[in-house]
From TrEMBL, chains A, B:
Source organism: Hoeflea ulvae
Highest rank taxon of the organism: Bacteria
InterPro entries hit by this protein: Creatin/AminoP/Spt16_N (IPR029149), Creatinase/aminopeptidase-like (IPR036005), Creatinase_N (IPR000587), Pept_M24 (IPR000994), Pept_M24_MAP (IPR001714), Peptidase_M24B (IPR050659)
Domain Peptidase M24: start-end pairs: 178-380
Domain Creatinase N-terminal, chain residue ranges per copy: 27-171
Record protein name field: Xaa-Pro peptidase family protein
Length: 400, 400
């Protein structure tokens, strides 16, 4: 059992922390079915989300790049962790029964021999091992060490397992959805309270700080992602840190946050006007709300991401010409701020119950000024259910 | 100029945000000297810290794994960024004069062709391009895309450039040290105030929350890293998230934080006793403070990391047998929570002025109970200067 699993939280509205062993057994079973279909003898996983998906090991320690962490998922039987010595106690407290360690840091052989030994023992000299090598993945170990691993295991063929991992992680369990929903609810509360927390003349830096504190006070664990900005009639980009510039009457402020509850993200934004809503921005706001509503209605099982995109883009095109540079109108989310799939014209992923998505229509207001609106939903058998409290029908105004 | 560079902050104690162009020109010049010595025609960089080091581009957007970001640093001339379309405006606002974009997301060709074109144009068909492939590095692009890139560029030899990058990033400029020092000062204030903020009966989750809020209120941008725990007479590991367990009389609480100011981390911890200091823990605390002091005295230019380790371990060995499982007694820090070098018996890195290090002696108190103490310093020509306010000489007690 995950050491942080708490089946009886203090408050009925707060989901349990961690997951019961049955959750991991179900994930493993689905993985092994997919691995059999893909002809894989096992998986080798190195990244935080994949490692946590199968073990429940939640730690901020992944921020330190010094030590790799490895998980082997065999075609039958339980996963085996091969981890640096500092992780021994934590991994032994998870549901895993086989945890192997090497003394670390040891840059001359940072887990490579330990991992090679485990691979040989579990899979024999010849095997086909899947690793995520496709879109939105990376290898979290030094490239030189990966080459050394391959050289030690001439009979092991490494194959791309992105499809296997993606098919699992795109579909969230009810317990996963609860955690995302909790983050969405808390941040919805904060966005609703925000107009009373802000006044014109505050810098973006100060506004960001107050927003983060308000999220923490209400039960968010970490505000890992907060971007946005303010500017006259609109903002210039949506990925910048806050500036020291004071917000003024006539500005539009956007905050877009990925806040975390028990390792799961929400990801949505809200727009605010200071003093008054400029006419053009007010119209854009309504169009973006209509676009998101069209996306929500279209987000039924068996619809595709491309169809969602078309539904939203159609609403925007009727009122605003041109694109926005964002490149998509939403994406999956869960253990990561953004996950597969992408809501683009070319992504033909078919929606299934349990998928959690953002709807994120955007448009260019004028040269260098844009507006983005974002909501989060879960796909159910009956259609989409919003996890965020819907944005107000007209842009909230902060006195200035 | 970095768009967030603010040469005139409101308060004399708060360093300017961002860096002036001269900082990046100096970094580039040092890089090109090191590249010439290593026989490299250029560098290909994909990771956040390296990208930011040469461009100044600071963004939380790196949390999204969808899009890679590429930087090419030629042996002469300015760096060239090859970035997804969403980053165009941000990169054009940096000191770079050559920013190339591809429309993204586009998983079928997520920047691979754009990057290959730029490599060919800048370096010709045959060149030797350095990438970080060694300890503590990784490649932030899909492995499959890296293979496709190599296949498109048969005349380009990719070579390990970890040594080049490490030699640059280990030595901090005065402006970098100022930012780390600012984070250290704010968090020192928070640790000092903490005994008045906590009472027995609070859960670890609540304690972590209050700590993060206090950091934000005093001017920290993000508390990206906070680990620790509490337990009777000591804690069991140092990388776990907080538990719902209430802290009780007789517990030792440790908080270890990597808090960020303008993209630069501090990384240190403090220990607290609830109700009273158990005798064994009190002794361990004094030994760890003595060990850190021995490390501080040893941290002079031309000393090695191994010598620092020996100085600290010697103090501990005289009083406590056995190791701790942590594996090292400190490390570099800066744009990342942990950076090269490591304070281990095998790391013979020679200290130089401008290096910022943690001193992190640890010991096992009893089976499964440990204690860690950590301070941060900068190496100067005259010896080490502490960036953290030293921990109290005896463990602070919180009434219980």
């Amino acid at each position: 059992m995950s050491e942080n699993y708490d089946p009886a939280p203090a408050d009925d509205h707060v989901p349990a922390r961690g997951f019961p062993p049955a959750e991991f057994e179900a994930r493993l079973s689905r993985a092994q079915t997919a691995m059999a279909a893909a002809g894989l003898d096992g998986l080798l996983l190195t990244t935080e989300a994949e490692f946590r998906y199968f073990t429940g090991f939640l730690s901020r320690f992944w921020l330190s790049p010094t030590r790799p962490w490895f998980l082997l998922v065999p075609a039958s039987g339980n996963p085996v962790a091969v981890v640096p010595s500092i992780g021994r106690a934590c991994l032994q407290a998870t549901w895993l029964d086989d945890v192997r360690c090497w003394e670390s840091p040891q840059p001359q052989d940072e887990g490579v021999s330990a991992l090679a030994d485990a691979l040989r023992e579990l899979f024999g000299p010849n095997a086909r091992i899947g690793m995520p090598e496709g879109p939105e993945t990376h290898l979290r170990m030094p490239l030189g060490d990966y080459r050394r691993l391959q050289a030690q295991l001439p009979g092991i063929a490494f194959a791309d397992a992105t499809g296997v991992i993606k098919s699992l992680r795109m579909i969230k369990s009810p317990a996963e959805v609860e955690k995302i929903a909790r983050a969405c609810t808390i941040v919805s509360d904060v966005f609703e309270a925000l107009p009373e927390m802000l006044v014109a003349g505050m810098s973006e830096i100060e506004i960001f700080r107050r927003f983060k504190i308000a999220c923490l006070e209400r039960g968010i664990d970490d505000v890992d992602y907060l971007v946005g900005g303010a500017g006259p009639g609109g903002y210039t980009d949506i990925i910048s840190p806050p500036s020291p510039r004071p917000v003024r009457a006539g500005d539009i402020l956007m905050l877009d946050t990925g806040a975390v509850f028990d390792g799961y993200f929400c990801d949505f934004d809200r727009n605010f006007a200071f003093g008054h809503v400029p006419e053009h921005a007010g119209k854009a706001y309504r169009v973006l709300l209509d676009a998101a509503e069209a996306g929500l209605q279209a987000a039924r099982p068996d619809a595709t991401c491309a169809e969602l995109h078309r539904a939203m883009q159609g609403v925007i095109d009727a009122e605003f010409a041109g694109g926005s540079g964002v490149g998509r109108m939403g994406h999956g989310l869960g253990m990561q701020l953004t996950e597969w799939p992408s809501i683009t014209p070319d992504d033909h992923t078919v929606l299934q119950p349990g998928m959690v998505l953002t709807l994120e229509p955007s448009l260019d207001l004028a040269a260098g000024r844009m507006m983005v609106h974002e909501e989060n939903l879960v796909v159910t058998a009956d259609g989409a259910k919003l996890l965020t409290r819907p944005a107000p029908q007209s842009m909230p105004v902060i006195p200035a």
